[in-house]
Each structure stands twice: as structure tokens, then as C-alpha cells.
TrEMBL record:
It comes from Blastobotrys adeninivorans (Yeast). The keyword Ribonucleoprotein applies. It comes from the Eukaryota. Keywords: Ribonucleoprotein, Ribosomal protein. GO terms for biological process: translation. Signal peptide: none annotated. Gene3D superfamilies: 2.30.30.790. Belongs to the bacterial ribosomal protein bL19 family. The keyword Ribosomal protein applies. One of its GO terms (cellular component) is mitochondrial large ribosomal subunit. This is ARAD1B18348p. InterPro entries: Ribosomal_bL19, Ribosomal_bL19_sf, Translation_prot_SH3-like_sf.
Length: 181
């Protein structure tokens, strides 16, 4: 048995086995050819120096999906006319469908920003999540703001609570339009 690593540790070698000393090459193999490293011309920058590629991609997508910035202004917190939790909102699509609902929450995430609307249609609660920068959405109208602004950013407590839950908002809006005429 060989014992020499540290005190108490034992490394066992079987009978007839032995260790070889480390071997190093102390000579250089002569090479007759030279290594040539090709240097290529650098490619032009796709994004300006100092900007993040992710930010640049999001900026390009915003320019593509919202050139007039009206959708960006609807979710901008600094804008006084932005959508807030508790607002009654109508969303119009290209195919002519509309959805009216109370805003339960807004997720502000640049191009992937979404709005969660809740309505009660024929006694059944319906929640729908809309991507704000979806090209099929042609209009987002704020129909009514709450009398007392909501302090929470997400109004999930409205779900299942008969006292706070929304009624049939689409029907209420139609009745209000008839009264105005």
C-alpha cells in the first residue's frame, strides 16, 4: 500500500501495478509551413453603438405596429387620458366585432402590452385579454371612468363578489346611448 498523499488518506494500488512519472515534451517539432490567419473586413453595424439589440428590436416593432403612437399613449402612465383600472372600455376590431368591459388590469410590456376586460353577458361573466398592439384592433375607446379612482393596479377582487362585480356593460351602454338621442 502506498500512503503519501496526506495523513490518514490511503490510495491502494493492486499488486503488480506501479505509477509512471509525468512525461513532458521538451522539444519543438519543426514546421516548414507558416500559419496564415485571414483578416476579413468587418460587417456594418445593424444597430447604433451603445444601444441594446432588444431595445432596438422593440423600437422597430413599435414603429411597425403603432406608427402614430395612439396605442402607446393609451398605456402611458404619464398621459392623463391613459387607460386605468376600473375604466369601461370598448375595443373595436377589423372584422366589426366589439367588446365592452371593465378594465381589471393592464400589463405594460412594450409591444406585448395587454389589457384584461371583464363583462357579464346574459348572466355569464366573461373575461377577455387583448393584446393592445394587435394590428386587428382598430379602435380603443374609453367610455366611462369610475367616479372614485381605483387605488389598486389589478382589480381581481371583483371576480365572484356580487357586491363589486360588473353588470352587463354592453346593455348599459346601449341604454345610455338611447337616452342621449
Amino acid at each position: 500500500m502506498f500512503t503519501g498523499l496526506r495523513r490518514g488518506a490511503q490510495v491502494g494500488l493492486q499488486k503488480g501495478c506501479f505509477r509512471l512519472p509525468e512525461q513532458r515534451a521538451n522539444f519543438i517539432i519543426p514546421v516548414k509551413r507558416q500559419n496564415v490567419v485571414k483578416v476579413y473586413k468587418s460587417t456594418p453595424r445593424l444597430i447604433p453603438k451603445g444601444t441594446s439589440p432588444l431595445q432596438e428590436a422593440e423600437k422597430r416593432l413599435l414603429d411597425k405596429y403603432d406608427p402614430t403612437r395612439w396605442k402607446s399613449n393609451l398605456i402611458d402612465r404619464k398621459n392623463p387620458d391613459c387607460i386605468k383600472p376600473g375604466d369601461i372600455v370598448r375595443i373595436r376590431k377589423e372584422d366589426g366585432t366589439t367588446f365592452v368591459g371593465m378594465t381589471l388590469g393592464i400589463k405594460r410590456n412594450n409591444v406585448s402590452s395587454t389589457i384584461l376586460l371583464r363583462n357579464r353577458i346574459q348572466g355569464t361573466a366573461v373575461e377577455s385579454n387583448f393584446n393592445i398592439f394587435n394590428p386587428q384592433i382598430i379602435g380603443i375607446d374609453i367610455l366611462r371612468r369610475p367616479i372614485v379612482p381605483k387605488t389598486q393596479s389589478k382589480l381581481y377582487y371583483l371576480r365572484g363578489n356580487a357586491k363589486y362585480d360588473v353588470g352587463d356593460l354592453d346593455m348599459e351602454m346601449r341604454k345610455a346611448e338611447r337616452r342621449r338621442r
